[in-house]
Amino acid sequence: MDIKTIGVVGAGTMGNGIAQIAAQAGYNVVMRDIEEKIVANAIRNIDKFLAKSVEKGKITAEAKDATVSRIKGTTKMEDLKDVDYVVEAVFEDMEVKKKVFKELDALLKKDVIVATNTSSLSITEIAGTTGRPGRVVGMHFFNPAPLMKLVKVAMELSRKLGKEPIEVKIDIPCFVVNRLMMPHFIEAIQLLEQGIASAEDIDKAAKLGLNYPMGPFELMDLTGIDIAYHVAEYLHKELNKELKWVPPRLLKDMVKAGKLGRKTGAGWLGQYTDTVKK
Ligand SMILES: NC(=O)c1ccc[n+]([C@@H]2O[C@H](COP(=O)([O-])OP(=O)(O)OC[C@H]3O[C@@H](n4cnc5c(N)ncnc54)[C@H](O)[C@@H]3O)[C@@H](O)[C@H]2O)c1
Residue 164 forms beta bridges with which residues? Predict the structure, then answer.
């Protein structure tokens, strides 16, 4: 099928980044969230990101305007009925995702592929709620979507969107990157809990000693402390309750206290990182 218009469901951190790269790649985009103010905020974020790219001389002002004009924001699911491909980026909650997939399945043309941006949940289980299980894929963009190169599955569209896909051969909880990342997060939090080093120094060690571009605490502040917590809980539940996946107490306390990193500005390092401010 010739893809001209891409639907994006969820206009939060990931949804607005995905809408932006799709529009920059020349696709028309219909971006849906549940509240007007979230949609307006997402469009403002995209505009701001692209205005910076104009300032830096990376794109022209005309290209920016053309990109923004290709994105239609909406709160109505029906507005997605004619799209040719959908990327779902709603909350990381199986029940919420299943509901969205059922609604989409009833609405979309029969051959439309629906991709989920889930970080951890079973794509097979999500696909099972639809009448098109063979047309549901995982397409895991990384945060911030406009900057990150790695995308899983949906190889062809990913390449057209300027990403470098890898193929995940089996639908396992958390796929590849998060399976590598979560033990790193959990271990870092345990080092902090045990008073072995400060969050700043653990980040410094990861950056200087392992050549990682960001430390684990900086990365959790950027991607969302709540997501790290839910992913650890999900892995613990799905992988035979192995102790290594138990979410650390401190992580749970941070989430309970509303210190969610990307959403509040308050996180492990007590402030947004430079990457988030950009
Ligand atoms: N934050 C990250 O770094 C990151 C990275 C990769 C993948 N993900 C995945 O992307 C997905 C979204 O994460 P996020 O960080 O953008 O979350 P977010 O909380 O910033 O955004 C989620 C958005 O979904 C909207 N939403 C909820 N129900 C909806 C519905 N029925 N229809 C339309 N919109 C609805 C919410 O209003 C919210 O704006 C999750 O599955 C997450 O695991 C996140």
Answer: 150
Quick check: 278 pLDDT over 60? no
Pocket lining: 119 vs ligand 1, CB cutoff 6 Å: yes
Ligand 1 within 6 A of CB of 97: no
What own/partner pairs with CB < 8 Å and gap ≥ 24 does 4-7 have? Answer: 4/28, 4/84, 5/29, 5/30, 5/82, 5/83, 5/84, 5/85, 6/30, 6/83, 6/84, 6/85, 6/86, 6/87, 7/31, 7/32, 7/80, 7/83, 7/85, 7/86, 7/87
Please report the pLDDT score of residue 48 as a whole number: 97
Q: What is the DSSP string of 240-275?
A: TT-GGGSPPHHHHHHHHTT--GGGTS-STTSS--HH
pLDDT for 152: 63
Q: What is the mean pLDDT of residues 232-247?
A: 94
Residue nearest to atom 21 of ligand 1 (CA): 12
Q: Which of 178, 193, 107 is nearest to 143 (CA)?
A: 178
What proportion of the chain, given as a percentage, has pLDDT over 70?
Answer: 96
Rg (CA), the chain: 19
Query: What is the 93 CA–ligand 1 centroid distance (Å)?
Result: 9
Q: Which protein residue has the closest C-alpha to ligand 1 atom 31?
A: 100
Q: What is the overall mean pLDDT for the chain?
A: 93
With beta carbons less than 8 A apart as the criterion, state whether 148 and 142 touch. yes
pTM of the predicted model as reported, rounded to 2 decimal places: 0.88
Alpha carbon of 111 to those of 12, 132, 154, 230: distances in Å? 27, 8, 15, 32
